[in-house]
C-alpha cells in the first residue's frame, strides 16, 4: 500500500452557504491485489468527512496494518464513520484492482448484467446575483445541460427566489432546476422558500434545514418541491433517514460514505424504499470522480448526478477519460476505473 499527498487549486473559488472552497487536498492510494495495481483517492472535506490530518493518520495506520495483514484487515482498520475519506481511498484502490483482475469496468463489477455508456449529469452554479446566476445557467444550457443545480442559502429567501426566477425566465420551462441550501434555513424560512419555489418548477431543494432536523424535513415533503437530503447522511445511518420519511431524494457522496461500495449499496436500498438516489462528488480529483461515476452507472435509470465537477479544478491528477456531451457523461469501458495508475501523479 502506497500513499502520496496532493493539493489541487480550484479554477475559481466555489461559494456555498457553508464556506468558500479554494483548493482540494488529499492522498492518492495505490494497492497491489490479485496481480493488479489499483488506485484510489482520499480527498477529505472537513464538515463532511474527517480533517486532512485525521485522514493522513488513518491511512498511515492502514499502511501499518498492510505490512502484515490482507485487504480485509485494512478495511476493518478504516472506520467509515470516523475516517470516511481514508476508507474511500483504500476501498477504491481495492475495487479498481478487483475489477481489473475480473476484466470488467467497475460498474459491471457491481452489476455484471449492466451495460451503461452514459450517465446524465447536472451543472452546478454557485452563488451570484440574479443576472450572474441566469448567465451561468444559460451558458450551461448552451453547453448541453438540461439540469442545473443552484447554490442558495447565502442570501435571504427573497433574494434566492429572485435568482431562481431570473433563471427560469431566462432558460424556460424545459430545464430542470434544483436548489441546494446546505442546511441554511430555519423551518419558517424553509416553508416560505418551498411555497415560493414551487411555482417556479424547482424539482427539489437539497438540505433546506440543518442536518439533524429529520422531522422538519419530513414535514416539508408533499408541498410541490421535492426534499433531498445530503448533510443529514454525514452523522447518521441512512436507515434512520429512510425510516423518518424525511426525503424524496438521497444525495450520495462516496467520499462521505466511506467508499464506492457503500454508496452503491445505499443507492439500491434507497431505491427499494421509493427514494431516488443521486450520486455526487465532493469536488474531487479524477480518480474519485470516476469512482462516483461507476457507482451511478451501476444504478438503473438514475437521474442526473452531480459528477461533472472536473472543470472546477485548475489542474488534475491525471487526464480525464470521460467527456460530457448533451448533459451526459461518458462511462469508461476499460477495466477498473478506466484510468492507468501510472498516469496518476501528485505533483500537479
Automatic annotation (TrEMBL):
Mandelate racemase/muconate lactonizing enzyme C-terminal domain: residues covered: 130-227
Cofactor: a divalent metal cation
PROSITE patterns reported for this sequence: MR_MLE_2
Any one Pfam family match given in the protein's UniProt record, by short name: MR_MLE_C
Record bears the keyword Metal-binding: yes
Catalytic activity: (1R,6R)-6-hydroxy-2-succinyl-cyclohexa-2,4-diene-1-carboxylate = 2-succinylbenzoate + H2O
Residue positions of the active site: 151, 253
Region Disordered, annotated ranges: 325-348
Assigned EC number: 4.2.1.113
Assigned keywords, A-Z: Isomerase, Lyase, Magnesium, Menaquinone biosynthesis, Metal-binding
Domain of life: Archaea
GO biological process: amino acid catabolic process; menaquinone biosynthetic process
Top-level class of the enzyme under EC nomenclature: lyase
Amino-acid positions noted as binding Mg(2+) in the UniProt annotation, renumbered to this chain: 180, 206, 230
CDD domains in the cross-refs: OSBS (cd03320)
Claim: Flavoprotein is one of the keywords in the record: no
Pathway recorded for this protein: Quinol/quinone metabolism; menaquinone biosynthesis; Quinol/quinone metabolism; 1,4-dihydroxy-2-naphthoate biosynthesis; 1,4-dihydroxy-2-naphthoate from chorismate: step 4/7
One of the record's GO molecular function terms: isomerase activity
Similarity comment text for this entry: Belongs to the mandelate racemase/muconate lactonizing enzyme family. MenC type 1 subfamily.
General function of this protein: Converts 2-succinyl-6-hydroxy-2,4-cyclohexadiene-1-carboxylate (SHCHC) to 2-succinylbenzoate (OSB).
PANTHER family per UniProt: O-SUCCINYLBENZOATE SYNTHASE, O-SUCCINYLBENZOATE SYNTHASE-RELATED
Protein name: o-succinylbenzoate synthase
Gene assigned in the entry: menC
Amino acid at each position: 500500500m502506497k500513499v502520496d499527498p496532493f493539493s489541487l487549486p480550484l479554477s475559481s473559488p466555489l461559494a456555498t452557504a457553508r464556506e468558500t472552497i479554494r483548493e482540494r487536498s488529499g492522498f492518492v492510494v495505490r494497492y497491489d491485489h490479485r496481480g493488479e495495481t489499483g488506485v484510489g483517492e482520499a480527498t477529505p472535506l472537513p464538515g463532511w468527512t474527517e480533517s486532512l490530518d485525521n485522514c493522513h493518520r488513518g491511512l498511515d495506520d492502514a499502511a501499518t496494518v498492510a505490512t502484515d495483514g490482507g485487504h480485509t484487515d485494512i478495511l476493518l482498520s478504516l472506520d467509515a464513520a470516523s475516517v470516511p475519506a481514508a476508507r474511500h481511498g483504500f476501498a477504491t484502490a481495492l475495487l479498481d484492482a478487483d475489477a481489473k483482475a475480473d476484466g470488467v469496468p467497475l460498474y459491471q463489477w457491481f452489476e455484471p448484467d449492466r451495460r451503461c455508456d452514459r450517465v446524465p449529469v447536472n451543472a452546478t452554479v454557485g452563488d451570484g446575483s440574479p443576472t450572474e446566476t441566469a448567465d451561468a445557467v444559460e451558458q450551461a444550457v448552451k453547453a448541453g445541460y438540461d439540469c442545473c443545480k443552484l447554490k442558495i442559502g447565502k442570501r435571504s429567501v427573497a433574494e434566492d427566489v429572485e435568482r431562481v426566477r431570473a433563471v427560469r425566465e431566462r432558460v424556460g420551462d424545459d430545464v430542470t432546476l434544483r436548489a441546494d441550501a446546505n442546511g441554511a434555513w430555519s423551518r419558517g424560512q424553509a416553508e416560505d422558500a418551498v411555497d415560493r419555489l414551487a411555482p417556479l418548477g424547482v424539482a427539489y431543494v437539497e438540505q433546506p434545514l440543518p442536518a439533524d432536523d429529520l422531522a422538519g424535513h419530513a414535514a416539508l415533503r408533499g408541498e410541490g418541491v421535492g426534499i433531498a437530503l445530503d448533510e443529514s447522511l454525514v452523522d447518521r445511518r441512512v436507515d434512520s433517514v429512510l425510516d423518518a420519511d424525511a426525503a424524496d431524494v438521497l444525495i450520495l457522496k462516496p467520499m462521505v460514505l466511506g467508499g464506492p461500495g457503500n454508496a452503491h449499496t445505499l443507492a439500491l436500498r434507497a431505491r427499494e424504499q421509493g427514494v431516488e438516489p443521486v450520486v455526487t462528488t465532493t469536488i474531487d480529483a479524477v480518480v474519485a470522480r470516476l469512482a462516483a461515476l461507476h457507482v451511478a452507472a451501476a444504478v438503473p435509470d438514475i437521474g442526473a448526478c452531480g459528477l461533472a465537477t472536473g472543470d472546477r479544478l485548475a489542474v488534475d491528477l491525471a487526464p480525464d477519460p470521460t467527456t460530457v456531451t448533451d448533459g451526459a457523461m461518458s462511462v469508461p469501458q476499460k477495466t477498473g476505473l478506466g484510468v492507468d495508475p501510472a498516469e496518476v501523479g501528485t505533483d500537479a
